[in-house]
């Protein structure tokens, strides 16, 4: 019985749409995060003096600190964006697939 349900799900247009949209979106967010992280690592490797420059006179806070914190904050924001879309559009498509194949 499970094999027939799996086959109906795999042949569903909504399922193919869900998989396609989710893969493209995850790849886009991963690419964005990869570019940001690799860019930060390249800055560390090739411009350590620039990153080590204080933000202004009399402070020990350098340019690298807010940039590093920014990398972390952006990763949390991108995770939030994925969760927001997953709980909205992806869950809606998932429920359509389940209704279409008669599981729910």
TrEMBL record:
Name this polypeptide is given: Membrane protein
Which Pfam family is one of this chain's hits?
A: DUF485
List residues traversing the bilayer: 25-51, 63-84
Organism, scientific name:
Cedecea neteri
Keyword vocabulary terms for this entry = Membrane, Transmembrane, Transmembrane helix
The UniProt entry's GO CC annotations, sorted and at most eight, read: plasma membrane
Q: Which InterPro entries match?
A: DUF485, Inner_membrane_assoc
